[in-house]
Design a protein that fits this description.
Blueprint lengths: L1 H18 L6 H7 L1 H17 L3 H15 L2 E2 L4 E2 L4 E2 L6 E2 L4 E2 L4 E2 L4 E3 L11 E2 L4 E2 L4 E3 L3 E2 L4 E2 L4 E2 L7 E4 L4 E5 L6 H5 L11 H24 L8 H4 L7 H8 L9
Parallel strand pairs: 1-4, 2-5, 3-6, 4-7, 5-8, 6-9, 7-10, 8-11, 9-12, 10-13, 12-14
Antiparallel strand pairs: 14-15
Helix pairs in contact: 3-4, 6-8
């Protein structure tokens, strides 16, 4: 038991130093990182909870909330390698399950959607990065290696190795290839360079309107409209409606 506790302690410190460039020493992490402190207190609260000591477990979790600004229900299951950066305002619900090497930024909510019973909070798989202020609500499944953009509200399952933005959250990048385990367990933190699907959809519309204006000008001048790639390929290329639906992640009926 003691060896396992020491191993977890070392892992927590190593993860913080790996993922936060501001971490300059082990002493700084041990004494100054609320995300690490919240994890340590959660392990105590979770151990009490699993032994049927629900009230003492809640006392520990509420003490942790007061000291760190991070609220983790004692019933939440958290795998190794979780890093909560800054952490103020993070809320993790009772039936949440978090895999290995997950990164959570401040203001994130892993919550429920009402008074339903049973599994009512998210399952977050290995290597997921959840950006500042994002909310994942309900018993949704967030696949391995997914990135949830800052401020997104996710209410449906997220495919593995995808990028989700918006409200409601939409998967705007999905890589169907096998996920590299090295990437999952050493996630890249470049989550600020996310696509803007609304801007891409507007750019698509502007391009299509420009093409229509050029065709109209050719017809008025008595010229044949220029032949474009989509004209050569017939139905092989998407219509404007199909292209915009693809950009916004509205295809396939998943709602993401």
């Amino acid at each position: 038991m003691m060896r396992r506790a020491v191993r977890s302690f070392r892992t927590d410190v190593a993860v913080a130093r790996e993922r936060d460039p501001a971490a300059r020493s082990t002493l700084e992490v041990v004494t100054s990182y609320p995300g690490v402190h919240a994890l340590w207190m959660h392990r105590l609260a979770h151990a009490l909870y699993m032994r049927g000591l629900g009230l003492p477990a809640r006392w520990v979790s509420q003490t942790s909330r007061f000291l760190t600004g991070i609220e983790i229900h004692p019933g939440a299951t958290i795998g190794p390698g979780l890093f909560i950066d800054h952490g103020m305002g993070v809320v993790i619900g009772e039936t949440t399950e978090i895999g290995e090497d997950v990164t959570i930024y401040q203001g994130v909510t892993l919550g429920g959607t009402g008074k339903e019973t049973g599994k009512r909070h998210p399952t977050v798989h290995d290597g997921v990065i959840i950006g500042t202020g994002a909310s994942i609500l309900g018993s949704v499944d967030v696949g391995e290696g997914a990135k949830i953009g800052a401020g997104s509200i996710v209410i449906r399952d997220v495919p593995a190795n995808s990028t989700v933005v918006g409200n409601p959250g939409r998967a705007v990048v999905v890589d169907g290839q096998r996920i590299d385990p090295e990437t999952i367990h050493h996630p890249t933190l470049e989550h600020t360079r996310l696509p803007d699907p609304v801007a891409e959809a507007m750019a698509c519309l502007v391009r299509r309107v420009t093409e229509l204006e050029q065709d109209l000008a050719d017809l008025r001048a008595g010229r044949e409209p220029r032949l474009r790639e989509r004209d050569k390929n017939g139905d092989c290329l998407p219509t404007a409606q199909e292209e915009i639906a693809g950009i916004l992640g509205l295809n396939g009926g998943s709602g993401i």
